[in-house]
Amino acid sequence: MIKSKKYKLVSHPSKQFGVYQKVSTADAGWTHLNFEARLMRKDEVWQGHTGENEYGIILLSGNYSITTDKGDWKTINGRKNVFSGIAHTLYLPKHSSFSLTAESDVLDIAAGWCLATEGRPAKFKTPEEAAIEIRGGDNATRQINSLIEPGFGSSKIVVVEVYTPSGNWSSFPAHKHDERKFDSKGNLVEACLEEIYFYKIDKDEGYAIQQVYTSDGELNELMQVKTNDLVMVPKGYHPVVAGHGYNCYYLNFLAGSDQALHNTTDPQHEWIYNSWKGKDPRIPLVTAEMNNL
Q1: Which residues contact 151 (CB under 8 A, 6 or more apart)?
Q2: Is it the case that residue 7 has pLDDT exceeding 80?
Q3: Is residue 2 domain-resident?
Q4: How far apart are CA 103 and CA 82, in angstroms?
Q5: Fewer C-beta neighbours within 10 Å, C or N terminus of the chain?
Q6: Cα of 141 vs its chain's centroid, Å
Q7: Domain residues for 162?
Q8: Is 270 exposed, middle or buried, given 0-12, 13-18 or 19+ CB atoms closer than 10 A?
Q9: In Å, how far are 91, 148, 150, 152, 231 from 123, measured between CA atoms?
């Protein structure tokens, strides 16, 4: 019998202000993806340079202004929290310098980055520009907001935010993206991607459950996650369920072989796609109009 190897996949927040969540390629033991989340007080400045990396900067709550050598931008309708609207997204290519200033009493912001294979234009995306997809059905209905989607114009990085209502399943039927595969015509059918899940729950005591497993049993981890926890998905299938009574948000950053989301469903659960009778009427949980309230 194959026994599951123990992996450390969960990162808990370290402190209240400043960089409170951070995972590097060295921490995760993988090749591409880095992440951090930070809380900033009004007028606090974050300065940096992307170097050989491309960055996705995602507004979790509050407002900011940013000056870069690729352009200047300012948010004026940042959401109060992730359950009160849709993210503003800023993509910065490699070799970009930036200075970001908090314009609200508290600014909560996330950034993911990876080595870029080529230079691309900077791009700022407003909440109104984020495409909303309602995925799944019945109690596996969830909302996906595309932030840096395939075809966005980045080199490798992909970013989405996902809303799962109380008691619902998400990332389900479970899928994986850990092998680069092509069909007989040379079309990509699965990318090899590293992924992080960064969580927010709508009540302090709330939680979700995430599993990460492989079909051969080498990896099989079941984790309770709360607000500001992060789960690393180096390989395998990775479903989520929101605890009953608690709406779940997670921010996904992905990077790897392709700027794509091609994946393979766990064949044991493919039948579920044809079983759904309808959509959960609670979805969508958030809209761009909420940013202006």
Answers
A1: 259
A2: no
A3: no
A4: 17
A5: N
A6: 18
A7: 10-292
A8: exposed
A9: 5, 10, 14, 9, 27
- Return the number of other C-beta atoms located less than 10 Å from residue 155's C-beta: 18
Q: Which two tokens stand for residue 147?
A: 């932030």
pLDDT, one tens digit per residue, over 237-252 is 999 999 999 999 999 9
Q: Is residue 100 part of a domain?
A: yes
SS3 291: helix
DSSP 104: S
* pLDDT at position 1 over 80: no
Distance CA 249, CA 84 (A): 11
SS3 290: helix
How far is Cα 9 from Cα 223, in angstroms, rounded to an integer?
A: 9
Q: What is the pTM of this model?
A: 0.96
The β-bridge partners of 208 are: 225, 242
Structure-derived torsion over alpha carbons of residues 175, 3, 34, 117, reported in degrees to the nearest 10: -70
268 within a domain of the structure (yes/no)? yes
Question: How many helices (H) and strands (E) are present in the chain, helices listed first?
Answer: 1, 24
1 lies in some domain? no
What DSSP string runs through 105-154?
SEEEEEEEEEE-SS----EEE-GGGSPEEEES-GGG-EEEEEEE-TTSS-
Count of structural domains within the chain: 1
The DSSP secondary-structure symbol of 258 reads S
pLDDT at 3: 41
β-partners of residue 249 are 163, 200
Q: What is the pLDDT of residues 132-189, one digit of tens each?
A: 999 999 999 999 999 999 999 999 999 999 999 999 999 999 999 999 999 999 999 9
> Which run of H or E residues covers position 55?
strand 53-61
Is residue 255 within 8 A of residue 157, CB to CB? The reply is: yes
Average pLDDT, the chain: 96
Domain of 287, CATH number, reads: 2.60.120.10
